[in-house]
Specification:
- The structure holds 2 protein chains of 2 kinds.
- Chain A contains no helices and 9 strands.
- By secondary structure, chain A is mainly beta.
- Helices cover 0% and strands 52% of the residues of chain B.
- Chain B contains no helices and 11 strands.
- Chain B is globular.
- Classes of the chains: A mainly beta, B mainly beta.
- The interface between A and B is medium-sized, with 27 and 25 residues.
């Protein structure tokens, strides 16, 4: 059971907007710690997609955006493309565990 | 370009030991915290251990505390993870990652290696 809760799967048609939620608690996201998002294609290495809740590393399309509120965070993908089909993970810090924690991951399917 | 390359994985029996290495290039290695993350077959990402740039501060997930030990040699630009008392549930791909951020609690993992596979089985 992950400290950060993500839906196991989401789906959308090409061109649509999808969001992936990441729900935490007062010892992690609710404590004000940053949330980061990673994208992982099958059989490949995770890639940093969003850092510090809302920032995109160089090279990440602006179709990807992040937000945070209270004890949860969200990743939004607009203009969905077939190449976006991957697993997405949120990550933050948990003060009770004194360490970094990941969500369980969400598999995005482009219909 | 910043790169990190892991090595040292393999097949080991339960109770055995292994030492993983992560060679970094293209960065002032001692300026950056580093971390290990693992991924069991078909499962999600799990943070394992982290170390400050100087090596003076180390951090562990509860699942590996007392069994794994993280260290670094800044003169060799290399990160290590000593795995002792290995269990079947430690079977995973182990990734080395560079961390970025202003304060430890808000570190993101911005550069990842290709991973090294550890299999614990009798």
């Amino acid at each position: 059971q992950s400290v950060l809760t993500q839906p196991p799967s989401v789906s959308g048609a090409p061109g649509q907007r999808v969001t992936i939620s990441c729900t935490g608690s007062s010892s992690n996201i609710g404590a004000g710690y940053d949330v980061h998002w990673y994208q992982q294609f099958p059989g490949t290495v995770p890639k940093l997609l969003i850092y510090a809740s809302t920032n995109r590393p160089s090279g990440v399309p602006d179709r990807f955006s992040g937000s945070k509120s209270d004890t949860s965070a969200s990743l939004a993908i607009t203009g969905l493309q077939a190449e976006d089909e991957a697993d997405y993970y949120c990550q933050s810090f948990d003060s009770s565990l004194s360490g970094w924690v990941f969500g369980g991951g969400t598999k995005l399917t482009v219909l | 370009d910043v790169q990190v390359v892991e090595s040292g994985g393999g097949l080991v029996q339960p109770g055995g030991s292994l030492r993983l290495s992560c060679a970094a290039s293209g960065l002032a290695f001692s300026n950056f915290a580093m971390t290990w993350v693992r991924q069991a077959p078909g499962k999600g990402l799990e943070w394992v251990s982290g170390i400050s740039g100087s090596g003076r501060s180390t951090f562990y997930a509860d699942s590996v505390k007392g069994r794994f030990s993280i260290s670094r040699d800044n003169s060799k630009n290399t990160l290590y993870l000593q795995l002792n008392s290995l269990r079947v549930e430690d079977t995973a791909v182990y990734y080395c990652a560079k961390q970025k951020g202003l304060i430890r609690e808000n570190y993101a993992m911005d550069v990842w290696g290709q991973g090294t596979t550890v299999t614990v089985s009798s």
